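Notebook B, p. 112. Complex prediction, attempt 2.
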Amino acid sequence: MENCKYTAADFKSDQEVKWCPGCGDHAILNAVQKALPEVAERLNYTHERFTFVSGIGCSSRFPYYMQTFGFHGIHGRAAAIATGVKVSNPKLSVWQISGDGDALAIGGNHFIHAIRRNIDINIILFNNEIYGLTKGQYSPTSKLGKITKTSPFGTIEHPFTPGELVLGARGTFYARSLDVEINTTKECLVAAAEHDGTSVTEVLQNCVIFNDKTHDQFANREWREDRTITLRHGEPMIFGKNRDKGLVLEGLGLRVVTIGQDGWTEKDILVHDAHNPNPGIHMMLVGMRYPDYPVALGVIRDVPDKTYDQSLQKQVDEIHDTAKIHNVDELLHSGDTWEL
Amino acid sequence: MDKKTETALDDVVIRFSGDSGDGMQMTGTLFTDTSAYLGNGVSTFPDFPAEIRAPQGTVSGVSGFQLHFGSHRVNTPGDYCDVLVAMNPAALKANAKWLKKTATVIVDIDSFNDKGIEKAGFKSDNPFEELGIEGYNIVYAPITSMTKETLKDSPLDNKSVVKCKNMFALGICYFMFNLPCDHTERFIDKKFGKKPDVADANKKVLNAGYNYAHNTHTFASTYTVAPATLEKGTYRSIDGNQATAWGFIAASEKSGRPLFCGSYPITPATHILEELAKRKDLGVKTLQAEDEIAGICTSIGAAYAGSFAVTTTSGPGLSLKSEAIGLAVMTELPLVIVDVQRGGPSTGLPTKTEQSDLMQALWGRNGECPLVVIAGSTPSNCFHYAFMAGKIAMEHMTPVILLNDGFIANGSEPWRIPSMKDYPAINPPIVTEAPEGGYMPYARDAERLARRWALPGTKGVEHRVGGLEKDFIKGSVSHDPINHQRMVDIRRDKVARVADYIPEQTVYGSENGGELLVVGWGGTWGHLYSAVKALREEGKDVSLCHFNYINPLPKNTGDILARYKKIVVCELNDGQFANYLRMTHQKFDYKQFNKTQGLPFTVTELVDKFNELLAE
């Protein structure tokens, strides 16, 4: 058994971190560097198994700041590159860093297909609802009507809700956190690493320069507890500063109720089942928006299913073990041959 | 039984043609296998439409398979045919232009009814007269009705019965060339092992065709083509795509690096992916990606993680992969990109051959982005060049583009099976432990200028690579102006130094110089060689310099070009290699012979062109 005890410092590279002061990326980097020692210890991963792959954008500079194997790819293609890394060597712990433009615009196709294949990579989606590195154009998650440099009169495009996309692509793991909630992010990332298959952890991140306070309506510390709910498997869906609000199922939808009012008791509150293969309630939780609902954080969906990399390795191993052809010479002489 | 006269021939070209559902590719392949098995030299040319089942009976739906067999090594599928099998009027119409004056035409006369003739677009009711071939030796065989008659007691339904008619045509051809049916019968038994009724029906119809030709005295003479005097050994039939796939597996075995192929289906390259997908017994991993870009990007990821990674495509796919190829150049990872060229631009002619992606392969990327370009030149030597592409990619830490084309990819020939012990070792520069002072991702060996390959999972060599410009040694991001200049220079020099590791260029013909040097590259070798050989046998001073290593060119290229009075560069494009030579070897005058019809050269047109140049 290898000694897999590390500290956050073991994952910090010697490169100067060049994100803007106040950028939410700093907090996410911090959360990842805190999560990896726990992942290593729990899963018995040695340091050299961690590999970070990214696309293009502010967040995609991430691998340079990690003292791990790292690959800074091209715009949108991180999921495809990460897939190749994982298939080539399934023992690696592969992490993909993408922003909302990288993963959902130019890389949308690779994003949904990685999820559909359920390849065992961990995607961290930095969602700041803006293009930062190109200096402030709207992204596929920008709110409808958002005024940016390329939408001076407001966008006329409907944004994606990333979690809906994940579930629509038959995702097996989806979690959501806030950049400032370092412990929630860390908790989600450890669960993501423990999950076999594609995990998507969306981190709602603040771009202090081009889209400051985009998540503020619910993310501001002053009212965060009342406007978000942090879900944990097996626990009732209760939230609020006074822990007196909860979610119940009513008809075909969710409803926010106050415990102790109108006859609602804690027993009526839904208990979160992240492991339920049926995505129905997960879809409702993903879709909750302030002010009608609290925004859901934590691990929303975590269901086991066959992974691409394991299935491929299994096929290779099974066929290899019973093969009639063992090397290239035998291959060249297989089938119809004749002597002259 | 009366014994017919037998005439010996050295070369025969047969073209099977019919509707794209008539099984003409299968018929041609079976004839090829039988003649190859009996020791003939063979070369084939499948010529089919892009549509899977184009409208029945129309010219656009005609599928053809031409094969050339001979009593010697055969290097082209032949220009014009000695025998044309036409299963319907459209097939006759589409192929009459390929008939030799002395040709025999075998038609299924049952299909020459009013409807069939009209569908084929004939204006009159006599297609033979309309095509001006009524004087040819035409065999009017009632193939469909005889097939039905043969199988009148078969339990098969009518549709399945009619499907067997290609076997009747094949039987006629076997009789004509004194070839036995048994090799094909064994194939049928194997293919339809689980459907004995279908196997029986096919064999019956095959023999019925053979007997029909015999009994009806269809041919005044039958023909024999003696076995070729080929090198002793074990042979098999192989096409260029299969050879390419197997060459990669061989490079994987020799390097000890597991093979990974990320790819997206595209004509005419798909068969490489299909062939590799079968080979899980040899540990090959294939991933059918969501698009061309994911095809190459998964391969780049696999290369980073330590696989021998390849990706397969055709011209439009190469365009889509351009940006990612730049990433592989920047990260200096081993990767082979196969482009099986087809007619372009855009979707172009998916099933037809061309050599028009050369410039794209050499230069089609942003920035100064050099890589190695290699081309296969026969169906079987795609094995060798796929192997060499892998060896160069892994030992020099560079992407390599392997430029094949639809003609050699789909064409097949007998191949003397090589032994892997005769193939060279492949030694990728893998880092197994952290060197003193730490691993420097962009430190290089002095000879090849290749950086070393540190695989994720190896302790102590954690490092970052990516598409941003790299520091000359450390590999960290650098925007320093002088560093960028040094990196551009060294990426160029690294590729140029591959010239020290490839064989010198050879010349067929007057090696010490002469009147006319024919220059070609890639899949045109068979036709160029045959034309030059024919002229040399007439005593003409023509030589052939045919390239497989395109970038870098062999070091003696300039020395060779200097020795001839005239140089003509022949290629299936508008002059891309000629212009490449004008750039790399400026002091020579290059004449051009170009063709862009989606078809290979014919030996006849090449001979005419070379005669014309000699007379000038």
